[in-house]
Write a structure and sequence with these properties.
Layout lengths: L2 E9 L9 E5 L2 E4 L7 E6 L4 E8 L6 H15 L6 H21 L7 E9 L3 E7 L3 E4 L6 E2 L22 E2 L10 E6 L5 E5 L1 H4 L4 H10 L2 H14 L6 E9 L1
Antiparallel strand pairs: 1-4, 1-13, 2-3, 2-5, 5-6, 6-7, 6-10, 7-11, 8-9, 8-12, 12-13
Helix pairs in contact: 1-2, 4-5
Amino acid sequence: MPYIAVSALSHAGLIRDHNEDSLVVGPWTLCATVTRNPQTFVFPLGDPLVVAVADGIGGQPAGEVASALVVRQLSALGPALDSEGAVREALSLCDQALYAAADSDPGLTAMGTTVAGTVVLEESLISFNVGDSRVLDATREELRQVSVDDNPPLAPGQRTTSLLTQAIGGGRRSAGITPHVSTEPIGAGARYLICSDGLTDPVPNDELDELLRVHDDGKAAFELWRAAIEAGGPDNITLALIRIGA
């Protein structure tokens, strides 16, 4: 029977004093805490399965609250996310939920988060993102970015930036969001990496690509995390690796 294997972990890194990232894999959520080892889940291929990473915006209040709220909302809505329209609506609901929470608690004003993820369907995969967390297609020999970074243009020689052009929440009042959503066919052997910029900022794509050619599932998740730690672990590191099996 065709199946989906998802290996995931979340870690604070070496510099931050706490983890503001959160993660959802179907009904399972990990909110602003740490996994000691990669966790691997197996699901039958068929009903919509949402897998996503949310990275609370640092330097603003309650990033961990924002990321947790978003992944819990996506987990609850996950079984109904069977189209691009449903995904766009779910992300808009997440944005509205963050502002509603901030309205009821001044300590949460301007909290925000990025989000990136996929919904795995029987024959296709819907990818989505708001912000600069990423979805990467690791199916072929060369790693391919599917998501679209919401960052301003980089200066010559600059590889990364912490500046965002949009996020879920993040302001004093909602201006609406324009999620990046796309659909592509999948089959047995398809592999996707979803991660926060705590992985992609310190670890170049060619190194990610090399690790994913050598390792799979939980071993791959561990080696990706270790690469980020060996590069200094400057930010929270959260990732989920999806593989379609036959």
